[in-house]
Each structure stands twice: as C-alpha cells, then as structure tokens.
Amino acid sequence: MTDANTLMVEKYRNSFLKEVEANVEEGDWVRMCMQCGVCAGSCPLGPHWAHPPQEIFMMIRAGKREEVLTSDSMWMCTSCYNCIVRCPRELPITHIMHGLANYAHRLGIAPKMNPTRRFAKIFWDNIASSGRVNELTLSIKLYFMDGIASGIKKGLEMMGVGLGLVKTGRLNPLGLISHSGVKDTKGLHAMLKKAKEIEDKRKGLA
Amino acid sequence: MAKKEYSFYPGCSSERKASASNYLVSVETISKTLDFKLNEIPDWNCCGASIGYAEGGELPRHAMNARNIALSEKHNAGQDIVATCAACWLGTKETHERLSKSSQLLADTKEALKEAGLDLDYKGEVPIRHMVEVLIEDYGYEELGKPVKKPLEGIKIAGYVGCQTNRPFGVAGESFENPKYLDKLTETMGAEPVESYDQKVTCCGGALAFSEPEKSQVQIKKIIESAYDHGAEMIVTPCPVCQMNVEVYQDQINKKYNTKFKIPVTYYSQLMAVAYGSSAKEAGLNGNIVRATRLEEIASKK
Ligand code: SF4
Ligand code: SF4
Ligand code: SF4
Ligand code: SF4
Q1: Backbone phi, then psi, for B236, in 5-degree steps?
Q2: Same domain as A82, residue A159
Q3: Ligand 1: distance of its center to the CA of A182 in Å?
Q4: 11-30 in B: which are within 8 Å (CB) of A?
Q5: Closest chain A residue to B284 measured between Cα atoms?
Q6: Which residues of A touch B60 (CB under 8 A)?
Q7: CB atoms within 10 A of CB A149
Q8: Which of A198, B75, B134, B144 is exposed most, by the fewest CB atoms within 10 A?
Q9: CATH number for the segment(s) B149-300
Q10: Each residue of B96-123: pLDDT tens digit?
Q11: Angle formed at CA B222 by CA A121 and CA B207, multiple of 5 degrees
C-alpha cells in the first residue's frame, strides 16, 4: 500500500497549488493573496515563524510542497485572528494555516516533535472520546508526553498552578475516575467516524 | 416584559470543578439580578477549541459544533445560542457561518449528524452570541448600570479584551484594534478603566500557552506589565482562556524574569456581581488564585 503522501504527490504531480485548493481547508483562497505583507507582521509569535503566512502563500504558488508541509511555521499559529481582520483581500488566513497543518499531519509529514502538533492530537483524542475536555487527564498526558522524567519535572514546575486550581475548586482531582462527558458517547463516536469517512473520501484519501 | 431566555452553551471550562467554574457562578448570579434565564443545551459537547483542527480536521470539527446547534434547535427552539467562552462562541459561530455558505458542507454535516440520531433542520437563523454581546445589545450600559448598589469606586482596572471575543467577529460597533466595551462596562460598574491600556488586544498565546510555554509567556508578560505601567490594580477579561493564562503563570514568569507580578485577573461578570451587591462567593471570587482583595472588601461591606 502506498502511503497517503506518495499518493498525493503522484496525483498532483505538477501543481501544489491545485493540491492545496482541493485538499486544504479554505485552500481555494490562496490564489487571492496579493503579497502585500500585512499578515506577515500580525502573528504574535512572529519571530518563530520561519515562513510567515505571506511567504507560505508564495511558496505554495512556487510549488515548494515539501518545504511548506514539513515546516513548523503553521504550528506557531495562536488563532489570534489578527491576520483575518487585516487582510485587504479578506483571506481566511487563520483557517488556511490550520488547514495546512492538519493536511501535513494527516499525510504524516508534519514535524514529528512539534509540541503543538502533539498537544493538538492529545487534545482531540481527549474530547473525541468523551465529548468534553477532562482537564486533569489532559494535563497529565501533556506533562508526560516527553517521558516520565521530564513529565515529573514539568509536573513539579506546574504544581503551584495545579494546587492553586484545586484549592480554588477549579480543577477536579477526581477527574481521573469521575468525569462528566456527554451521555450519548455512542452517537458522538458514530458521528465523528462518519465525518472522517466523508472527509477522507472527498479528499481522495480513503 | 417577558423574561429573556437563551439557549446556553457553557463549554468544558465552565463545568463544575473546571478552570472557569467561577466564571459560571458569577454569570448565574448576574442572571438573577438582570432577570434572564439560561437554558443549558442538553448533552452539549466540546466545540473542538482553537486547537482541535490539527487532528480533528474540517468536517469532524464542524460536526461537533453542528451537534450542539442541532440539540439547541431541538430542545431550545427559537432561542439565541449564548456562550460564555470565547473559543466556544467562535467555534460555533464559525461552523454556523460555514454551513450557511456551503451546501456541500451542510449536506455532509447532516449526514454525519444522522449517525448521532440528530436531524439538523438548519436554516441558519438562530444567532450564536457571546454573553457580553447579550449584555451590551439586549440590555445596554444604561440598563446594566441601574442595579448597581455598590459602585466599585476607586479601583483602576485594565480591560484585557484579548483575541477571540474581539476577532474575527467582535462586538457590533467596536473596532478590532481598540475595542472599548470592557472599559465601558467597567465604568458602568463605577470603577476606573485604564483607557490607554495598549496591550488590550495582544494575544496571550491561547492554546499554545500549554504547548509553547516560553513563547507564550513573553506575550503574557507584556500584557501584565502594561497593566501595571498604567497603574491598574486589576485586569478584567471576557475570556476563560485569557483569564487562566494571565492569572496562573504569574509565578512562573516571576521566577524566570525576576518580576513581582501578583495582579488579580477577574471576569467582567464578577465585577458586575459585586457591584450588584452579591457576596464574594456569589461572585465566584473564591475561585481566583490571585485574590481580588479590593472586590472582596467591597463585597463584604454591608
Ligand atoms: S494580508 Fe492577505 S493579501 Fe496581504 S500577504 Fe497576507 S494573505 Fe496576502
Ligand atoms: S491567526 Fe495565526 S496566522 Fe493569523 S496572525 Fe494569528 S498567529 Fe498569525
Ligand atoms: S472552547 Fe474550551 S471550553 Fe469551550 S467547549 Fe471547547 S474546550 Fe470546552
Ligand atoms: S487572548 Fe488568548 S486566550 Fe484570549 S481569546 Fe485570544 S488567544 Fe484566546
């Protein structure tokens, strides 16, 4: 079986732009970018973007598939929506960044160790299983994502925060055993499974 | 006038014993004073927040939000959907917008929802609103000022609006770069807003405060520092993620940067509850890690 990435490389051989338009959320907007640069100065974590959004749009058009999809730039997006309200062409930049990150992750070529990618996966798995966030199990998984030793270190660093939240009744130490998710988990799981199936089919990934 | 009723989407962080549970307590308190009713959407689920996209993808994420909309249509027909969490509001509203623009997305979403036994009779008519919108638009500053019993005199407050209550949708009539509604609310409660608070819309890092703590804490430091520089004794915010990020990392920032931050970060609804004469407990003040002592003092005064 060929993997999803090879499949897509073959399908869109000559045009990364076409691939983005077809498979990335709101990707059909990329063409509308006029390279004014307003968005590039809008990201709160700006210095950490190797390629700001403006540059990413240019690279998509230039067919730099590998560089774009393996970049950790999109993973620096804080969803602050500065860019969206400022872009003179009204590109939904935030969603395109999310879409690119999701697509790269789906193809298995997003940067493996990027902490936001790993957090996002843990987060989604947390809510997809019970329908609601369990803040305690979520934080524990997060602390221990780099292994036991670093998890304990991080746990200790965050102990003040955790204790403060427990003391003020804002973190449930019993979250490990009792947690109120949605009642209809069966329906929720079936719905999510269906949604993923449809999405994969539409993108030719199924 | 008939009692105002809304279909309420509390969101995970407002759940009992979750990080914003005290927000909910204060909202319930002011709902009694202002006489409106919040009908919780039965069996609501998480919106996917602003980080759900990476693993969740497009359709599953919209299906999550559409499930809430469908449940609201079914159980709270005709009522506006109201969220207290900025991310919940944004996520639901985004789905709502996307569904009304794309018939294919709508059809796909409906198909997925059927699996959960739900029919989405989607007409796109029910607005999705943030609690502050409801207060400002359905009541207005004048009405909100009427029940004030204990004006918060002499407290200087920096209104930290943040991102997602402000962009991309925002509150009607406000600018994205310099929204003034929090200042106006603060003033209505008798306190003194810091009008020149230059970091009022700076992003705190949002969900990346977990995954990229060092980078986000640079943002949070700017937000707090500017509040101090302008003489604020307290920060007020409309967003549970902002509240948490700006409040709970102060110790870590102090250690790293040798600062002495210890500024209370409260919700607008807590200010209102205290000004309306409620107790500290009813205002959820016992949920603040950095105690809002000035508010506690006022609340305990007869
Ligand atoms: S602001 Fe809009 S038009 Fe300008 S570079 Fe960014 S995406 Fe392109
Ligand atoms: S939403 Fe993302 S891409 Fe847009 S300005 Fe913020 S960080 Fe940058
Ligand atoms: S945005 Fe946050 S609080 Fe709201 S439903 Fe999602 S995870 Fe829960
Ligand atoms: S300021 Fe931060 S926490 Fe608040 S809405 Fe924006 S990203 Fe979220």
Answers
A1: -120, 145
A2: no
A3: 40
A4: 12-13, 15-22
A5: A168
A6: 128, 192, 195-196, 199
A7: 9
A8: B75
A9: 3.40.50.11810
A10: 999 999 999 999 999 999 999 998 888 7
A11: 10
Are residues B18 and A170 in contact, defined by beta-carbon separation less than 8 angstroms? yes
Residue B82, beta-bridge partner list: B8, B129
From the CB of A93, is ligand 1 less than 6 Å away? yes
Q: Token digits for A167?
A: 């003391």
Average pLDDT, chain B: 94
Domain ranges of chain B: 4-131, 149-300
pLDDT of B150-200, one tens digit each?
A: 999 999 999 999 999 999 998 889 999 999 999 999 999 999 999 999 999
Rounded CA gap, B252 and B151, in Å? 34
Cα A141 to Cα B161: distance, rounded to the nearest angstrom: 30
Q: Distances from the Cα of A71 to the Cαs of A51, A66, B3, B112, in angstroms?
A: 8, 8, 53, 32
Using pLDDT thresholds of 50, 70 and 90, give the confidence band for residue A173: low
Domain that holds residue A92: 3-107
Contact B235, B295 (CB under 8 A): no
User: In terms of C-beta density within 10 A (0-12 exposed, 13-18 middle, 19 or more buried), how is residue B96 classed?
Assistant: buried
Atom 2 in ligand 1: residue holding the nearest Cα: A87
Mean pLDDT taken over chain A: 87
**A83 and A134 belong to one structural domain:** no
Of A59, A82, A107, the residue that ends a domain is A107
Q: Which ipTM was obtained for this model? A: 0.93
3-state secondary structure of B137: helix
* Count of structural domains within chain A: 2
Parallel, antiparallel or unpaired: strands B36-40 and B81-83? unpaired
Provide the CATH number for the domain formed by B4-131 in this structure: 1.20.1050.140
User: Quick one: which of A81, A3, A15, A11 has its CA closest to A42?
Assistant: A81
